[in-house]
Design brief:
The structure holds two protein chains of two kinds. Chain A is built from 13 helices and no strands. By secondary structure, chain A is an all-alpha fold. Helix content of chain B is about 5%, strand content about 35%. The chains are: A mainly alpha, B mainly beta. At the A-B interface, helix 5, helix 12 and helix 13 of A face strand 13, helix 3, strand 24 and helix 4 of B.
């Protein structure tokens, strides 16, 4: 049903089920300060302040969302989940919590709940490209190349005209290249990865993938240069295998 | 030319549908043994990797005995409770029972040991033991009757530092077994442990990042079980080595060394053609070094099998939590990451994997995947690190083009533990692979495989741990089926499996062929046990 809705949305010709995003309550007042604390990596102080806010206004979905976001940014995904769920259950709900709930479940290893959360967010906001991207990743992981291709295509289309979403387009192109590669179109995958890294030069994972595909195509000189670029990009962007450094 | 004994064992039980059933029989079978690896909970990285287990026929009586490479404590790493040898007392009714034979075997190894490799280093027809340690490694020579003599110094095998595993193979093609020894970090028990580091808001054990890596060592056999340390690894960077295997990965009739490193690029070491021998790391150019995103993973265990049915060895590695285990499919000389495409990745994201093995658990003809798991941080919880300290083993059953995770409500497969090393072998000679596991500061367990299939039966073939067989590609043709196996007992993390391969065939089938190199021989599947042939000519 979701995919059908997306096709209607992007292709035209039929009325989308929910063409308008659900309203998102604005962050105001002290919540903006708490949000900035989270962005600055001050998760503990942010949570202390958010706890006080929730004690005084327990029905504020925005505060519950930020509490979840503080855990999410700290990669404590299981702790984030109940806060996102409360944000969605609040009146009014805070719709972006469904999107983050999808990623929290994804990182916690629950693909089914991740899928459900992303699909719920699509009902609340059909135009969020990163939610389409998340569903594409899930489809890729369950081996459904057709679904993955469609979701990545949507993610790219929804974000391409927004200059602030170049990174979102780039990573969607990078993951969509996996669909092409698995279908045997290695050259097409290389081209798609090249487009991705031209938009986002720090996307070192895409550069590595491109290098590996170039080696498979026998284009060793290009592969070596691309791998060097990947190393440079990785040095610019701290990467981790999940272990403390 | 020596003869190769192929032992053929048929499964007897029948059930209505394929069933995977692994049963912990330790309480009845023994051994009653709890491993040591410092304190519990561990407070430094030296305490987290745990013991090693090794299955081989120590006393030459035809069944698989068990050696446990046991640890010690940081306060006195040279004088722990000691490694142990257990004799398999398998009797005619195939009831498993292990008894301690450490003393009669002449084994007195109290140093902190990490793994053991059983192979015929001196070419006298029995398996010797190379035990990796934190401190000097030990080479124990077997007299053929299960009595061992420490010949480390005389054999030139006193590799020092923190060794984690030893991969045997005839890397220089001179007809004897050489040894590639992985080493981890330059650890000094007398120096204070590094401070803890912050990980996701938790204080956790530091390392290996920040600690000095140790270079691996290649020992070349002189032909009589004594060794020269080779300069072939001189140009390779030191790394946090945890596991290695010698295997002809690219079908060029030459073994390569595949090295799993912790938090650093894995290595694919290709020997030079000329003399002197040199090893060159081609891991990056062939796609073996990282996952497809270029991420250096924390590789603990390796598994080898023909996952895509092309007759070439594909590799699965176990890795850290919040990362995935990785499946690399060979495509010509390249490895292609198919982790997600074949369903390996997502179920392993919350797990931290160690020993892993591809094996046909349900006897349906394709190989399933079993992985032992457990975190290194005692304070790991699903809430704090999206991963728990104690974790269950994971079976991913092969279903068409995908591996599908199985869940179990009861029994060994449902229990959470802090597992580390494992070794596989047909302990009760019933035609399937059982396993021995070692938990961190926990019991050694005997897990009996009671899986069954209504229409098919399991076959186990025994080989020798010698220069001809280790790393060999074995092709079995049974009716319309072709099975590819590689004899690589040392892929298990700090474990050494029996030199056996397992496959399954339709019950009505009575003949098969086995091909190793240029030699093909018949196997009589109707005999139980034993079919004897010679595949070394």
């Amino acid at each position: 049903m979701v995919l059908t809705g997306l096709c209607c949305l992007l292709m035209g010709g039929c009325e989308p089920e929910n063409p308008d995003p659900a309203p998102v309550p604005a962050m105001t007042g002290e919540l903006v300060e708490h949000y900035n604390l989270i962005l600055a990596g001050q998760y503990g102080p942010a949570r202390v302040r958010l706890r006080q806010r929730i004690d005084t206004a327990p029905g504020d979905g925005r505060a519950h969302f930020l509490m979840g976001l503080a855990h999410h940014h700290e990669r404590a995904y299981s702790k984030a989940v109940p806060w996102f769920e409360r944000a969605l259950a609040a009146d009014p709900p805070y719709p972006p919590a469904a999107h983050f709930l999808g990623w929290a479940f994804y990182h916690a290893g629950d693909a089914n709940k991740s899928q459900a959360a992303f699909e719920r967010h699509l009902q609340l906001d059909p135009n969020e490209g990163d939610t389409h991207f998340g569903l594409g990743v899930l489809a890729l992981e369950r081996g459904d190349l057709d679904d993955a291709d469609a979701f990545f295509e949507n993610a790219i289309a929804l974000q391409r005209s927004n200059p602030d979403r170049r990174g979102g387009v780039a990573k969607s192109l990078a993951r969509r290249s996996e669909v092409l590669e698995q279908r045997g179109d290695v050259a097409g995958a290389v081209s798609m990865l090249a487009e991705a890294v031209s938009m986002e030069p720090d996307l070192h994972e895409a550069l590595y993938r491109q290098a590996r595909l170039l080696r498979r195509l026998g284009r060793d000189d290009e592969a070596t240069a691309t791998e060097a670029a990947a190393n440079d990009a990785k040095a610019r962007v701290e990467s981790s295998d999940g272990r403390p450094r | 030319m020596r003869r190769l004994l192929l032992v053929l064992v048929l499964t007897a039980c029948e059930r209505e549908s394929p069933q995977i059933l692994l049963v912990d029989v330790t309480e009845q079978a023994g051994p009653e043994f709890v491993t040591s690896s410092g304190g519990m909970p561990p407070r430094s990285i030296v305490e987290v990797n745990g013991p090693g287990v090794c299955l081989f026929d120590a006393d030459g009586d035809g069944d698989l005995d068990l050696f446990v490479a046991n640890g010690a404590s940081p306060d006195d790493p040279e004088h722990g409770p000691g490694s142990r040898m257990f004799r398999n007392m398998l009797n005619d009714d195939k009831t498993l029972r292990f008894t301690d034979m450490t003393e009669t075997a002449g084994i007195d190894l109290q140093r902190w040991a990490t793994s053991a490799t059983a192979a015929d280093f001196d070419n006298d027809g029995d398996d010797d033991l190379y035990v990796t340690c934190i401190g000097n490694d030990a080479l124990l020579r077997n007299d053929g009757k299960g009595r061992f003599t420490d010949v480390t110094a005389a054999a030139g095998a006193a590799v020092s530092g923190w060794s984690t595993g030893a991969a045997p193979g005839d890397i220089d093609r001179d007809g004897d077994l050489d040894l590639y020894i992985t080493r981890y970090v330059d650890w000094n028990f007398d120096a204070p442990s590094p401070a803890t580091v912050n990980f996701r808001g938790q204080q956790v054990i530091a390392g290996p990042a920040g600690l000095m890596p140790l270079a691996d060592v290649l020992l070349l056999n002189r032909g009589d079980g004594t060794f020269d340390q080779s300069d072939a690894t001189a140009n390779l960077p030191a790394a946090y080595g945890l596991n290695a295997v010698m295997l002809d990965a690219d079908d060029d009739d030459q073994l390569e060394v595949l090295v799993g490193n912790d938090g650093m690029s894995n290595q694919l070491l290709e020997p030079s053609k000329g003399i002197p021998l040199q090893l060159r790391d081609v891991g990056r150019e062939r796609g073996f070094a990282t996952n497809m995103s270029g991420a250096e993973q924390a590789t603990m265990g390796l598994a080898v099998g023909d996952v895509d049915g092309t007759g070439t060895p594909d590799i699965i590695s176990t890795n850290f939590s919040s990362d995935t285990n990785t499946l690399l499919i060979t495509e010509g000389q390249h490895f292609v990451d198919r982790t997600n495409a074949m369903g390996i990745g997502p179920p392993t994201r919350s797990l931290l994997g160690w020993t892993t093995r591809l094996l046909d658990l349900d006897h349906d003809g394709d190989e399933d995947l079993l992985t032992l798991n457990g975190h290194v941080y005692p304070n790991a919880t699903p809430e704090s690190m999206a991963s728990a300290w104690r974790q269950p083993a994971l079976i991913q059953r092969r279903d068409g083009d995908r591996f599908v995770p199985m869940s179990f409500e009861t029994g060994w497969l449902a229990e959470d533990r802090v597992d580390r090393s494992g070794a596989f072998g047909d302990l009760d000679a019933d035609g399937d692979l059982d396993l021995v596991t070692a938990e961190l500061n926990g019991p050694v367990r005997i897990i009996e495989n009671r899986s069954s299939h209504p229409d098919r039966r399991g076959i186990v073939l025994d080989f020798d741990n010698d220069a001809f067989m280790l790393g060999a590609h074995i092709i079995i043709k049974a009716g319309s089926e072709t099975h590819h196996r590689w004899l690589v007992p040392g892929t298990d993390f700090q474990g050494w499996s029996a030199p056996q391969i397992h496959f399954s065939v339709p019950r009505e089938l009575h003949n098969a062929t086995i091909t190793i190199g240029n030699t093909t021989r018949q196997i009589d599947l109707s005999r139980n046990p034993a079919a004897v042939t010679d595949v070394k000519q």
